[in-house]
Design goal:
The chain has 217 residues and is of the alpha/beta class. The protein is built from 10 helices and 6 strands; from the N terminus they run E-H-E-H-E-H-E-H-E-H-E-H-H-H-H-H. Strand 1, helix 1 and strand 2 form a beta-alpha-beta unit.
């Protein structure tokens, strides 16, 4: 028998992790070797345990699953990544593809889809839920003839970090301390974010962060 697929599981809800782990560990070819409660911990656990597959919740504290997936795709290019989420949302889905995820699984049907998604990812095959397939087809038709099928990200990774922290209610001083940058740098990033995204204030930034999966509603 080949060695089981070694899995890192990241979700900020312990009950969700427990339920998902039961599903995965019940399969002879799958084993959870590490758990994480947020994206930052997931990055640390990935480096420590070197799993074959990471299953990441989209909306988590400190570092989101999407942010963690982007960093893991850069630092561990052979690691397969699945996004596990409660959000049947096209914007989250396309961002998951952009950051390198091999599949997008809804929590509501994880007991049905997750095991096959893990196996598909390890075969280098994408796993999409039915609604995502419809979204892909519609997106292709809308962008037929364009050189790229996905719109470019308008903000940088650092600006995204600042945006997330602003939306979580942190002050500029707190953000500066968390990111080890100057308060003036935080304010400059915040101004750039507002300008790039066409937003006016913290409330609109927060709404944008919810829509894009940086924070939970």
């Amino acid at each position: 028998m080949p060695d089981p697929i070694r899995i890192l599981l990241a979700d900020d809800h312990a009950l969700v992790r427990r339920g998902v782990r039961l599903i995965l560990d019940n399969e002879a070819d799958l084993t959870v070797v590490a758990e994480a409660a947020d994206g930052t911990e997931a990055l640390d656990q990935a480096q420590a345990t070197r799993p074959d597959l990471a299953i990441l919740d989209i909306a988590m504290p400190r570092t989101t699953g999407l942010q963690a997936a982007r960093e893991l795709s850069r630092s561990m290019p052979h690691l397969r990544i699945l996004m596990l989420t409660m959000y049947d949302n096209e914007q989250y889905f396309f961002e998951a593809l952009r950051v390198g995820a091999a599949g997008y699984v809804l929590k509501s049907v994880a007991d049905r889809d997750l095991v096959e998604a893990c196996r598909a990812a390890m075969r280098d095959e994408p796993f999409l839920y039915p609604g995502a397939e419809t979204a892909l087809i519609r997106n292709y038709l809308e962008h037929a003839g364009d050189p790229g099928t996905l719109p470019a990200r308008s903000i940088t990774d650092r600006e995204e970090e600042v945006l997330k922290l602003v939306a979580e209610g942190h002050s500029s001083k707190e953000i500066a301390d968390l990111l080890f940058i100057a308060v003036k740098t935080v304010e400059r990033h915040r101004s750039n974010i507002l300008q790039k995204l066409g937003l006016r204030d913290r409330l609109e930034l927060t709404r944008y962060a919810i829509r894009t999966g940086l924070i939970e509603p």
